[in-house]
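Protein modeling request. Please complete all fields; requests missing the sequence field cannot be processed.
Requester role: graduate student
Desired output: 3D structure, token encoding
Chains: 1
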Amino acid sequence: MADARVRIIPRGPLDIAQVATFGDAAETAGRLSKHFGLTITPTPNHAVVAGDLTVLWHGPGQWLVVRAPVTTQLADEFAALLREDAAVVDLDHARTVLRFEGEDGREVLARGTSIDLRRAHFAPGACALTALGKIDALLHAVAPNTIDVYVARSYGPALVEWLEHATNCRVG
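Delivered output (172 residues):
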């Protein structure tokens, strides 16, 4: 696949926070929706994007919220908004995000996951927690030929090594 039509682009810097509700997921989703002025639901494997803000389902009653950095960090906003109704974890420096763009991006990623990444099954707006080359990852279909991959930062080099092995190409 030396002539693969895929670009792998590191994303960042990003402000990333995980929210895990202690109570009713729909209620917390409603509070987040009102705060950001968009519709967030507890629907599994669903992502919402508005401008530079992305809200990814991250498990029952959990969301990963991502945006470009601004003055107030997401974790601080959520701590004030949700108080003791949810656990909030700042993940800015704990995640590596790689964007796969191009016609062959889905094919490359499909080599390491059991998820059906064909557009009919993993359309833009879908997200899923999975293993990618034996590394825990969150995949987000951003556009028909664009998928963002979130992994723990310490696994970033292992993911690049797996990609190089899977594609027989040098990354970076």
